């Protein structure tokens, strides 16, 4: 931002879509003119414990910078492997107070020549692979 501040918000999404196909993306409120936003918000998702236990199931946090005139800017993304969330593997959790605060590093995706995305793109017969490549390519473009 020119003024040195951002207007961040976070998109929260369960992935992959073939596991969480009916789970909508949710988003936080926009925190105006800050570089250190605090999102003290709660969200509820209708997902099963079996979905969360599936291999590859993740929660994706995409941080965006709201722009009032132009397209919103991609700031970064972080992933949480759902099998690592307390309670998913069956242990008893006694409310939010029992959970530790976790810091997640924001990542900027970068295209790797002959990487996984290129391999998926070559699977022209696979509709799911093509849709995934299309979405990830858009994220890579915004990150560039």
Automatic annotation (TrEMBL):
<dbReference type="GO" id="GO:0006887">
    <property type="term" value="P:exocytosis"/>
</dbReference>
<dbReference type="InterPro" id="IPR052095">
    <property type="entry name" value="UNC-13_domain"/>
</dbReference>
<dbReference type="InterPro" id="IPR035892">
    <property type="entry name" value="C2_domain_sf"/>
</dbReference>
<dbReference type="GO" id="GO:0099503">
    <property type="term" value="C:secretory vesicle"/>
</dbReference>
<keyword id="KW-0268">Exocytosis</keyword>
<comment type="similarity">
    <text>Belongs to the unc-13 family.</text>
</comment>
<feature type="domain" description="C2">
    <location>
        <begin position="1"/>
        <end position="95"/>
    </location>
</feature>
<protein>
    <recommendedName>
        <fullName>C2 domain-containing protein</fullName>
    </recommendedName>
</protein>
<dbReference type="InterPro" id="IPR000008">
    <property type="entry name" value="C2_dom"/>
</dbReference>
<dbReference type="Pfam" id="PF00168">
    <property type="entry name" value="C2"/>
</dbReference>
